[in-house]
Amino acid sequence: MPVRTAHATVSGADEVARLMREALAPIEPVVVLYFAGGDRDPRALAEAMQRAFPGALVVGCTTAGEREGAAWRKGSVVAMGLGAEVVRDAAVAVIEDVGGRDVKDALAPLEAHFGRPLASLDPSQHVGLLLVDGLSMAEERLMDRLGDLTDIPILGGSAGDDLAFTATWVAKDGMAFTNAAVLLLLEPAVPFRALKTQSFRPLDRTLRVTACDEAGRVVHAFDGKPAASRYAEVLGIPTDELTGHFQRHPLGLMVGDEPFVRSPQQLRGESVVFYCNVPEGTVLTVLEATDIVEDTRSALARARDELGGASALIDFDCVLRTKEIESRGLLEPYGALFAGIPTVGFSTYGEQFVGHVNQTATMLLFG
Questions:
Q1: 163-170 long-range CB contacts below 8 Å, 24 or more apart?
Q2: Long-range contacts of 135-138, Cβ-Cβ distance < 8 Å, separation of 24 or more
Q3: pLDDT for 356
Q4: Is the dihedral of CA 54, 59, 65, 67 positive or negative?
Q5: Is the distance from CB of 231 to CB of 314 less than 8 angstroms?
Q6: What's the helix, strand, coil split of the chain in %, to 5?
Q7: Which residues share a beta bridge with 237?
Q8: CB 155 within 8 A of CB 147
Q9: What is the separation of C-alpha 231 from the centre of its chain, rounded to a whole number of angstroms?
């Protein structure tokens, strides 16, 4: 079997790596992905995982929850091994000081490995997986710059730390980094699809950002009025009830008929703090939650039909979606969507797909 997954709940880094090595032993992986919750030392775990798989590219990050197959876990480590039947070639680069370093220089190892500029890579034959420090607030700038450098699809997730919001980590080649991102560039040996699903429909109500702190992800005014009051006004609710509607009624940047979700995080006086950047002049549409299980089922079914089946799935699922699924008692029906597909994933602090989004699942499905 060219793909295997595993999980471990033990604490010690060496013991986690040993269990992963045993579970993935039937294949000799080209790439090992791991996602780790709990209070494990991220540096020790990165070193141990690389020692356990010396012939593979080993890439991982910290999480706010982990998925293996249909099972949702917390405080565990999950891993996937991808063999040569699924991944023909792969390379990885780390972008340190993700908010300030020039991205192009950091990606030179990828261009050296593939022997040509990223701009010349065929987007039908290559795909990127991007793991980012989830507290860096640098995802938008990074995705914009990557979009300038290449046309290949890039998706991924922002690392978590079990909602402590203290420090998040990404890892490659036995090293762990904070304030950094890791880009894993794959040339799959099978057809693949990068997909995005969010469970919202647009309402016929919009808000224009007229004053903000873009770098701080804070909106001070919509339509020339205090942001919180105007947001509540278009929802038809008192301002003191607004935070209770954030999850069901986030805002979306519409691209055609497709929303790219911008989720509010909290109020700061009359200002609204978001989980991603919302520049001045942006017109946002009020969204309304729909059926998260059915919407995800439909997106997966379409992709599987296009590929004629599925051999592996990597899932980046927003922590806000996870909280909704848990609060509504949907863990079992949502998990059942992944039954029969070797799957790993994690609950993120934001998702990458074209740009940076929230309350979304971005997935890489291998045919």
A1: 163/64, 163/319, 165/135, 167/135, 168/61, 168/62, 168/133, 168/134, 168/135, 168/349, 169/42, 169/61, 169/62, 169/133, 170/59, 170/60, 170/61, 170/62, 170/94, 170/131, 170/132, 170/133
A2: 135/161, 135/165, 135/167, 135/168, 135/349, 136/98, 136/99, 136/179, 136/180, 136/181, 137/99, 137/215, 137/216, 137/217, 138/98, 138/99, 138/181
A3: 93
A4: negative
A5: no
A6: 25, 40, 35
A7: none
A8: no
A9: 27
DSSP string, 113-151: HHTS-GGGS-TTT-EEEEEE-TTS--HHHHHHHHHHH--
In angstroms, the CA 139 to CA 135 distance is 10
Q: For residues 308 and 317, what is the distance between their CA atoms, to the nearest angstrom?
A: 24
Tens digits of pLDDT across the chain (367 residues): 699 999 999 999 999 999 999 999 888 999 999 999 999 999 999 999 999 999 999 999 999 999 999 999 999 999 999 999 999 999 999 999 998 777 989 999 999 999 999 999 999 999 999 999 999 999 999 999 999 999 999 999 999 999 999 999 999 999 999 999 999 999 999 999 999 999 999 999 999 999 999 999 999 999 999 999 999 999 999 999 999 999 999 999 999 888 999 999 999 999 999 999 999 999 999 999 999 999 999 999 999 999 999 999 999 999 999 999 999 999 999 999 999 999 999 999 999 998 999 999 999 999 9
Distance between CA atoms of residues 217 and 37, nearest Å:
26
What are the b/e assignments for 77-91, b being 16+ CB within 10 Å? bbbbbbbeebbeebb
Q: Which two tokens stand for residue 206?
A: 């919009």
Are 366 and 86 contacting, i.e. CB atoms less than 8 angstroms apart? yes
Q: Are 36 and 45 in contact (CB under 8 A)?
A: yes
Helix (H) or strand (E) holding 228: helix 227-235
Take residue 256 and report the two structure tokens written for it: 């055609």
What is the identity of the amino acid at 285?
T
Q: Quote the Cα angle for 170-173-177, to 5°.
A: 30
Q: Tokens in use for 213?
A: 């702190």
Report the C-alpha gap between 326 and 95 in whole angstroms: 34
